[in-house]
Amino acid sequence: MPSRRQLLTTGVLSGAAMLIPAPASAARAAAAALAAGKLDASKIHKYKTRLPVPAAMPTVSTKGKADRYAVEVRQFRQQILPPGMPQTTVWGYGSAAHPKTFGYPARTIEARTDRPVEVTWINGLIDAKGRARPHLLPVDPTLHWANPAGGMAHRDMPADFSTTPTRYAGPVPIVTHVHGAHAAEEADGYPTAWYLPDAPLPRGFAATGSDYADMREKAEAYGPRWKPGQAVFRYDNDQAPGTLWYHDHALGITRLNVYAGPVGFYLIRGGEQDLPEGTLPGPAPGPDDPDGTRHYEIPLCIQDRSFRTDGSLYYPDSRSLFHDAFAGPYVPASDIAPIWNPAYLADAIVVNGRTWPQLTVEPRRYRFRLLNGSNSRTLILKIAASATAPRPATAAVPFWQIGSDGGWLREPVALEQLMLGPGERADVIVDLTGLAEGTELFVINEAPDVPYAAGVLGTDYQPANIATTGQVMKLLVIPLRGTDTSVPPEHLSLPAAPKLPDSAASWRVLLDDLPSVALTGVNHRVATLGTVAPDRTQTPLRWHDAPTEKPVLGRSETWEILNFTDHSHTVHLHQVQFEVVSRQPFGIPPKPRPAESWESGRKDTVLAHSGEVTRVKAVFDRPGRYVWHCHMLEHEDNEMMRPIQVA
To answer: Using one digit for the tens of pLDDT, what is the confidence trace for 287-303?
Structure first.
């Protein structure tokens, strides 16, 4: 019988069936989670909370040649569940001098094309007595991660254990990455340039990552000095208008730091590649809008989260809670990490920091900046007349997509459904003109409750649970105020970026997951990237291996991403906004499929499907060290990230 890899190589395997958990193991894992105090998401009332709209982040200064911010991560409590249910302790960014600005998600950093932004990013994860806080969630110390407890000599390395360890309980490392930014290496949020809060540390702990000092030296050559517990990053914003976002990127702990709450939008506007003011729906939220201000451009951060009955965030604290319910032996008695889960798809949908919120809308056009900020969940969004309509539901109103990750599409695209993998964004117009007051519409999700593997709904995969993760938010039409003067989306002419030059070289890379070498029949030991040679020899590589992808400065190059796993992954390249070229099943003679209509603009994150090669074209024009990785954060944190060295 052919092996899984042989099936993938010949393009036979669909992949979807491989992801469905065995009923017995899935039931055991679910029962264990409920026994641990997990809240049943079906008990959370929907559409009882007004959708919060994140305001703009206050600046420290707009004088001189840059806008300056001081943005800190702190711990606080927030009403994420509906009123009457417990509050949730989370982390979030806010303006260091404005305590009321802290929230999950964070306020939006508003940037202008070619106007630099300088952000002092502060690790404020300390308590009222100035002591460093432990993590809210279970940190697996057996991974290749930041490892502050290893001290200067063994930070950013896996630790050795004589017995299976419990969760790490020390201070939390962070380093912020503006996802999609055309930034210098010292401002990119390199995973090993992390830093702990400025607080007393346990004896022998490293306060910074192994690349922090080098990045600080480079940044201080043209900017202010870095203080303990801080980093100062400068963003030139020398790129087209786009929908970027910022989040933590510390080595081996990103999944937990992001899940705890520190995320926010970073929007770039203006310049020759922007549309004239008034063309699109607005206004967008400002920093000091009075109560009652109606916004017609709204950022929507969609994530999945689980909760305990006391309102706290729930995240699995054992590998035994994964769908294979593997109960050990763990490191060091085997090579299986005791806490890390290969993926986690939570059972409640949170939009802008509220579970299943409601947004009142007028019968006019809205601009939504959509972000899939989930750890591992792909979304297939649709606007339907009923939240519980049989899937696939009929679309009541289309999405008019006008932009993606890094800027405008070549032309507006009307979509009945909108697919977003983890980390992807979409800039859309939703035209509600003519709807009657009192009309109810629902944003629903038809992607599966397992990692997405492409295919046809109902045949290759089943939709998300209609009672929970199959619903996202409600739109309720109220009377029109004023006149909508924005241009109908079908009449827009978009100033898309010019096409990149023809490719002069290529990098052939792989996505894979490796089984245990110590235990028979145990899969998902580690997620990995690597190389594929011209003779098809595959070489899995780890984070610590020397860079194999070394783009030549200013040269247009093609990345061929071969996915040997059983499901789709979103792949993110730092520094660049690339063009999606094509996709092609392994070993299939017909011509490659061109990029989808909604991928005609510049992107920094792309869905790479199982058993296919996905091709993107990129030009790296800043020298230095960057990374590329899977944006399923559980994968990124366990070796599915590699360095890039731009010559």
So the answer is: 989 988 999 999 999 99
Q: Contact at 8 Å (CB) between 165 and 158?
A: no
Residues in Cβ contact with 28 at an 8 Å cutoff, skipping those fewer than 6 apart = 325
Q: How far apart are CA 206 and CA 201, in angstroms?
A: 8
Those residues whose C-beta lies under 8 Å from the C-beta of residue 80, and which sit 6 or more positions away, are 87, 88, 90, 104, 305, 307, 311, 350, 353, 354, 355
**Distance separating alpha carbons of residues 543 and 260, to the nearest angstrom:** 24
Token readout for 303 is 């994530």
List, for residues 137-188, the tens digit of each pLDDT value. 999 999 999 999 999 999 999 999 999 999 999 999 999 999 999 999 999 9
What's the rounded Cα separation, in Å, for the pair 603 and 592?
19
**How many whole angstroms from its chain centre is CA 530?**
22
pTM of the model: 0.95
What is the rounded CA–CA span in Å between residue 244 and residue 240?
11
* Preceding omega of 316 cis (within 30 degrees of 0): no
The span from the CA of 182 to the CA of 577, in Å, is 8
CA 568 to mean position of chain CA atoms: 15
| Strands 569-573 and 605-608, bridge-based pairing | antiparallel
